Amino acid sequence: MTVLDVLLGALGLVAAGAGLMVVTTRHVVRAGLWLVVSLGAIAGMYLALAAEMVAWVQVLIYVGAVVVLLLFAVMLTRAPIGPSDDLDRVRWPAVLVGLGAGGSLVALLVRAFRDTYVDATRVDMAGPELMGQMLFSRWVLPFEVLSVLLLAALIGAIVMSRRTPGGEG
Amino acid sequence: MHPVVAYVAAAVLFGIGAYGVTARRNAVLVLMAVELMLNAVNVVLVTADLTVSRDLRTGGAFALFVIVLAAAEIGVALAVVLQLYRTRQTVAVDEVDTEPADEAAPDRVPAEVAR
What we know:
The complex is a heterodimer of chains A (about 170) and B (about 120).
Chain A lengths: L2 H22 L3 H21 L3 H25 L14 H23 L14 H10 L2 H21 L9
Chain B lengths: L3 H20 L3 H25 L6 H31 L16 H10 L1
């Protein structure tokens, strides 16, 4: 056990605990706020895993934009402010699905990587410079395709949210 | 560093997200659970970067792509959810009827008046 292992374990615990609060809390708004905690802990995991650029993009886009969008949606659909009891369906099939997916993945990954060890001091931090070189040399085609996809999503969202779908709007 | 720690954390997060997608009725909460699952995938990608392809940083680039895809997905999905709320007055995913929107028009009138 190294310091990095302990750090990753602690951040993973925070992320999983906050994630559990997201899917079990009875307050809709608090679910969004717990999501911030979970995503922030995951950004910390990225930093510990030497992916600095991914960590800051996570903070900017997920914590900064996606959570704000989700909270806007919560308000625009007039979600109840206080606790509400009708947020969940019957729980046992969901528990079965969650335990099945999570448990089998844990078993698979533990079996595959139980003895793997990486010397973290020999790995460069993937900052903006390194990631930029990778993105604009090897991955430049998917990068450009993604920009087209973002444009399509933007237009799609605008068309969807017009007041009369298919009409003059 | 033992990558198995990060892998296990990601697998647990994915399980929690899968539970949330299946259990929640509110469409916005379902979307939050989907975000948890996407983040679990990202953690696996970044960890695999260290264990499998240490020099190329493929996992990091893919994680960035997944984040962009998630941003696009959340934008379109929220437009769908808001349109659903506007026409059906509900965001509960198990209460959505499948009849055409025209037949649900009486539901829409009060909302237009209220606005």
